[in-house]
Design a protein that fits this description.
Layout: H1 6-12, H2 21-38, H3 43-49, H4 54-61, H5 69-78, H6 83-97, H7 111-122, E1 123-130, H8 141-152, H9 161-175, E2 182-188, H10 189-194, H11 199-215, E3 219-224, E4 240-245, E5 253-257, E6 262-265, H12 268-284, H13 288-309
Parallel strand pairs: 1-2, 2-3
Antiparallel strand pairs: 1-4, 4-5, 5-6
Length: 310
């Protein structure tokens, strides 16, 4: 059965799909830099003309801050941008300045989760390779609590656990909503076996995944067995996610999960490398039906072990 992304249906019906403010900020940043350089302005010169600091201009051109529409208008006027180019850039600025539900959480939900929520809000499709945990957008509260306990061993938390749970619940609601993206995840068997959380919690998380995937054809889980050969290149060094958007001008994006931060890639050749890696993993992973059977078997084994110990 072919699943047509619901965003594509909305577009066909004349309804505008949501956009990711973060992706639009990156597009706006590139556009502002290109316009400034084309007019022969240095960053310092433009800052003086529009009565802003060099740091402010630099942050706008690197998508590090949310733009103020009025300030962007002033910059465009200073650069003598007119006509369709002015309208297009101003529209980008309005999209880039939009606040999402995640902004109401401030820092409480954690900077990483805010990034993922933003990208998911505008994505038509999401694909992920999960090497260290089950997909965050489909985690149950008990599993999140267990992960927070593990995280506390790494040092001081930069988020509020309770608010983080709320935010992940919101992300799951969006994923399962009519406007949600298609979602496919490759789960590394090594992660499933090695993740040190209570057996009862892991079993409950596995059953939740099975329930959601069974009910929603837009969501697919594949298990990557630990004993398969992955040919055609190097093994993945970290978990990563791939985002595609309905608007052709919004660049496909890869986000790589590192120990200290998330690396966001939008350059075509860089994203292509991760897309190729994902395709190689997907090719040798179990089929969706085999994967659900595998997850169910692990859940049953964990439950039986727990019952025998008691």
């Amino acid at each position: 059965m072919v699943v047509v992304p619901r965003r594509r249906i909305a577009k066909a019906l004349g309804r505008s799909p949501m956009t990711s403010p973060y992706i639009r900020r990156r597009r706006l940043a590139a556009e502002l830099r290109k316009l400034r350089e084309a007019r022969g302005f240095t960053t310092d010169e433009l800052a003086r003309v529009v009565y802003q600091s060099r740091t402010k201009i630099s942050k706008l051109e690197n998508a590090q801050i949310r733009p103020e529409v009025g300030e962007i208008m002033t910059i465009l006027e200073a650069l003598e941008v007119t006509g369709k180019q002015y309208d297009r850039t101003l529209r980008l600025a309005r999209d880039a300045s939009t606040k999402g539900w995640w902004d109401r959480y401030g820092k409480a939900m954690g900077p990483r989760q805010r990034l993922y929520a933003d990208l998911e809000s505008g994505a038509e499709s999401v694909r992920s390779y999960n090497q260290t945990a089950f997909p965050a957008v489909l985690q149950i509260p008990e599993f999140i609590d267990a992960m927070v306990e593990l995280d506390e061993h790494q040092g001081t938390l930069d988020y509020s656990p309770a608010r983080m749970v709320e935010a992940r619940t919101r992300r799951q609601q969006h994923l399962l909503s009519p406007d949600g993206p298609t979602y496919e995840a490759v789960l590394d068997e090594t992660m499933i076996r090695r993740l040190a959380i209570p057996a009862t919690v892991k079993a409950a998380q596995l059953r939740h995944l099975i329930k959601v995937v069974t009910a929603e054809p837009r969501i697919v889980m594949r298990v990557l067995p630990s004993d398969v050969l992955i040919t055609g290149g190097f093994l993945p060094k970290a978990s990563f996610s791939l985002y595609a958007f309905a608007e052709s001008t919004d660049p496909a994006t890869a986000v790589v999960d590192t120990v200290t931060t998330d690396l966001v890639l939008t350059q075509r050749d860089e994203v292509a490398r991760y897309t190729g890696m994902y395709d190689r993993l997907r090719k040798v992973a179990l089929s969706p039906a085999e994967s659900l059977a595998f997850l169910g078997g692990v859940a049953n084994h964990l439950t039986n072990e727990t019952e025998s110990e008691t």
